């Protein structure tokens, strides 16, 4: 294995010296031994320390004591794993060893709940309640988990129904007018035969930020979530059981809460205003939108799993159904390009909402923003910025709806044989509807539909609306064989085939004519989707098929009774897909020469098409799992290298047309690194834990952005880590004082392939050449956070005072660069929060 640029041996020494760890449940016993953790990473129950995969396993005790309620809460405890949760609820990007999930594409990791693979990306960011264990598997897991497991897999196990009645209530209050209430009831319906469990959770918060324009403190990052989950286990016989699981959730929250930052050095020099070339980490954030940023989701899921002991093997089969309906509404960004400058609503707003009358909304005059009062001498002269209080920037509307049905069946041999095997099949049918629309804010309210005609309150001027149908077929298997008493070899493989079809649903009509940038040379409205220019009789369907064989080879050596050393090679696969029809035509017109539009002056030479290729990752890993000091000290570590072809990368475009989301590919890149985690029981009741992750990455080839070759891989920070301590003091025979302190660190992070190389912007079409972007100030600074929890625990109750980010660290959650716009769109992180939780078990 070839490693370059940074000697990972130095990282290994630093990590071991630095007490790096991942939290697990600790047994409070006289021996002070670390409790054995059972995982299901290879689709059978095994000891964590014997599984040849880098796994972070978080048990029930840690889930409760660390206050884990959403995905971001446990990801901060795992080295080389990071998360971005910014645009709307459920729109998360998870980076596992530098391979990050992509907006508008499939996920990069398999998400499995109670043994059932979820095909809906939004389900990952659901509320976590009544959960037994979480397992995070790093590295490609395609051989067993198939589609999308190019970075890893995350397994969540919820609590099973009990054979004795129990009930639990809980809740909490916190700053920002936050509260939560939850309840659970479990027990036998028919003793030993039919067992049921039902749990429900609801929470609300106003969020951390306030809309300066409206004065509302519950309209920016607010959240309302109500989720319910039911589970029924029917023990049909001694050999067969059926596990029924159903869930429902309603979520409302803020959406698209970004502020923009220019990254154009020429503007800074020409106008003498530093605001045109800003460090994104020093932004003065102002939320001033007049269009309510709102996101509403409704999710229904159902699954049934059968376990049938056939003697020679267990037959495990499940069928799962999921339905998501979601929309987003928010302000637009097109005001900078004067698209709606002459509308009555924009002119009326500028009378009272301008930089002279309301400097609190726009900041220092023309540094960088300046909104002028109405008048012919002032029209087409301001610098408005995005998401403003005026109607001049229009609005955006999105939908992400999905319905899917999947089936998985496998035979699993007994685990106590020298030769162990698994063989299975997988089928899925996925229907996904994607809507991205932009239009005029006339001040008359909003119809929350994909298309609003010209005489409607908010007419649509640019629309992408597609139905995506996907059919998945897969066969998979694994053989594990004990070559000797201490040496195991495992060979796994999976073949996936995905048939994809996309149907365009955009009506063949012209836009409203209100956006002057979307008029033709005769000042007439153009088609509402640019693909109609080349397809006047209707946009045809598109289809393609993607397939991949995903092997995995593993050697596992029990070097001693307390140390396992393993090596593995594996392949992961993520299907290719389609951008919305019209993406290529629109970008060529505005940004590329040779297409007769503004792009003649820009000549950005970007290469974004209406479809994108499949992604394939290939990984090598060498790891160690060990325990010392009579199992009081656990140290696990791994070295890895992942090479990725056609990594699917989200690109964001802003221009006179409005906004556009698309997926491109990075042809070749690699990520290599080291990680370790450690747990140490110092004394009875006092446990230290932590983890460190070191990564070195490089973009080796990128036809879409050739200047990015040699740059770091986006969202692959060189260093991540966590360190913590848990102290349990017995106050009486059944009451403990429990304290927990968690520190986490994420290094400097780039969010785009361009990292300081200058490239053309749309401003060259307005002001001539030389107005290029420079993203050298657009990486997110390193940050660290500190969480503290102190509480009392008894046999049947718990009270905990807690604080998250108690040092009130200010950092960015996300940076979305838009090179051809000449800037980025930036989202703040959560601030300090604190509260009091309680629970009571009947």
Automatic annotation (TrEMBL):
Intracellular or extracellular location(s): Cell outer membrane
Top-level taxon of origin: Bacteria
SUPFAM superfamilies per the UniProt record, alphabetical: Porins
Record-annotated TonB-dependent receptor-like beta-barrel domain positions: 288-806
Similarity annotation: Belongs to the TonB-dependent receptor family.
Residue intervals of the TonB-dependent receptor plug domain: 48-153
PANTHER family assigned to the protein according to its UniProt record, in alphabetical order: FERRICHROME IRON RECEPTOR-RELATED (PTHR32552), TONB-DEPENDENT OUTER MEMBRANE RECEPTOR (PTHR32552:SF81)
Name of this chain's protein: TonB-dependent receptor
Keywords for this protein: Cell outer membrane, Ion transport, Iron, Iron transport, Membrane, Receptor, Signal, TonB box, Transmembrane, Transmembrane beta strand, Transport
InterPro entries, per the entry: Beta-barrel_TonB, Beta-barrel_TonB_sf, Plug_dom, TonB-dep_rcpt-like
Organism in which the protein naturally occurs: Candidatus Seongchinamella marina
Pfam families: Plug (PF07715), TonB_dep_Rec_b-barrel (PF00593)
Membrane topology qualifier: Multi-pass membrane protein
Leader sequence residues: 1-27
């Amino acid at each position: 294995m070839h490693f370059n640029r940074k000697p990972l041996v130095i990282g290994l020494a630093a990590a071991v010296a630095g007490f790096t760890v991942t939290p697990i449940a600790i047994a409070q016993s006289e021996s002070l031994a670390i409790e054995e953790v059972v995982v299901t990473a290879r689709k059978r129950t095994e000891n964590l320390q014997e599984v040849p995969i880098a796994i972070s396993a978080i048990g029930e005790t840690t889930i409760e004591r660390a206050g884990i309620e959403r995905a971001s809460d446990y990801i901060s405890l795992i080295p080389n794993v990071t998360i971005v949760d910014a645009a709307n609820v459920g729109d998360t990007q998870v980076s596992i060893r530098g391979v990050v999930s992509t907006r508008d594409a499939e996920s990069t990791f398999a998400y499995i709940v109670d043994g059932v693979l979820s095909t809906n990306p939004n389900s990952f960011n659901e509320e976590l309640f009544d959960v037994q264990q979480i397992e995070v598997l790093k590295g490609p897991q395609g051989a067993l988990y198939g589609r999308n497991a190019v970075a890893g897999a995350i397994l969540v196990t919820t609590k099973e129904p009990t054979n004795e009645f129990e009930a639990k209530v809980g809740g909490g209050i916190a700053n920002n007018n936050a509260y939560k209430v939850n309840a659970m009831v479990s027990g036998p319906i028919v003793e030993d035969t039919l067992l049921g469990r039902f749990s429900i959770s609801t929470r609300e918060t106003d969020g951390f930020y306030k809309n300066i324009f409206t004065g509302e403190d519950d309209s920016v990052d607010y959240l309302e979530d109500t989720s319910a989950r039911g589970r029924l286990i029917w023990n049909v016989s001694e050999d067969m059981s059926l596990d029924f699981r159903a869930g429902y959730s309603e979520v409302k929250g803020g959406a698209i809460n970004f502020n923009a930052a220019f990254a154009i050095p020429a503007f800074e020099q020409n106008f003498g205003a530093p605001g045109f070339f800003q460090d994104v980490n020093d932004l003065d954030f102002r939320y001033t939108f007049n269009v309510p940023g709102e996101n509403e989701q409704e999710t229904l899921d159902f699954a049934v799993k059968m376990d049938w002991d056939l003697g020679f093997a267990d037959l495990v089969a499940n069928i799962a159904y999921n339905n998501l309906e979601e929309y987003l509404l928010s302000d637009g960004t097109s005001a900078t390009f004067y698209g709606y400058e002459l509308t009555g609503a924009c002119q009326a707003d500028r009378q009272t909402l301008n930089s002279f009358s309301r400097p609190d909304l726009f900041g220092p005059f023309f540094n960088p923003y300046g909104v002028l009062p109405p008048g012919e001498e002032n029209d087409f002269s301001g610098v408005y910025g995005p998401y403003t209080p005026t109607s001049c920037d229009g609005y955006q509307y999105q939908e992400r709806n999905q319905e899917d049905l999947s089936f998985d069946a496998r035979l699993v041999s007994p685990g106590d044989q020298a030769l162990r095997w698994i063989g299975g099949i997988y089928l899925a049918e996925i229907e996904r509807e994607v809507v991205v629309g932009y239009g005029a804010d006339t001040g008359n309210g909003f119809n929350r539909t994909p298309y609003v005609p010209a005489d409607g309150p908010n007419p649509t001027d640019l629309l992408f609306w597609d139905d995506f149908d996907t059919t998945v077929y897969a066969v998979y298997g694994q053989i594990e064989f004990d070559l000797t008493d201490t040496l195991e070899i495992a060979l796994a493989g999976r073949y996936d085939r995905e048939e994809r079809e996309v149907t365009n649903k955009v009506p063949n009509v012209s836009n409203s004519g209100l956006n002057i940038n979307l008029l033709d040379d005769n000042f007439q409205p153009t088609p509402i989707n640019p693909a109609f220019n080349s397809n006047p009789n209707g946009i045809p369907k598109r289809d393609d098929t993607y397939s991949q064989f995903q092997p995995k080879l593993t050697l596992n050596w029990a070097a001693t009774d307390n140390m396992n050393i393993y090596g593995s090679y594996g392949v992961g696969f993520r299907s290719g897909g389609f951008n919305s029809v019209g993406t290529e035509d629109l970008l060529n017109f505005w940004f590329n020469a040779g297409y007769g539009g503004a792009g003649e002056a820009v000549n950005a030479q970007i290469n974004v098409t209406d479809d994108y290729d499949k992604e394939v990752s290939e990984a090598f890993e060498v790891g160690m799992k060990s325990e010392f000091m009579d199992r009081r000290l656990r140290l696990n570590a791994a070295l890895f290298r992942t090479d990725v072809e056609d990594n699917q990368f989200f690109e964001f475009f802003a221009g006179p047309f409005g906004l556009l989301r698309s997926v491109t590919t990075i042809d070749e890149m690699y990520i290599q690194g080291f990680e370790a985690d450690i747990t140490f029981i110092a004394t009875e009741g006092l446990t230290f834990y932590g983890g460190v992750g070191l990564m070195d990455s490089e973009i080796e080839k990128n036809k879409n952005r050739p200047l990015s070759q040699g740059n770091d891989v986006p969202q692959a920070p060189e260093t991540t880590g966590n360190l913590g301590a848990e102290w349990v003091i017995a106050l009486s025979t059944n009451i403990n004082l429990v304290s927990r302190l968690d520190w986490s660190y994420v290094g400097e992070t780039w969010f785009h392939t361009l990292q300081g190389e200058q490239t053309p912007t749309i401003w060259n079409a307005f002001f001539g050449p030389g107005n290029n972007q420079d993203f050298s100030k657009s990486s997110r600074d390193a940050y660290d956070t500190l969480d503290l929890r102190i509480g009392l625990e008894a046999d049947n109750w718990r009270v905990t005072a807690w604080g998250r980010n108690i040092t009130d660290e200010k950092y960015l959650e996300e940076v979305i660069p838009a090179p051809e716009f000449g800037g980025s769109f930036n989202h703040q992180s959560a601030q300090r929060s604190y509260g009091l939780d309680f629970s009571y078990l009947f």
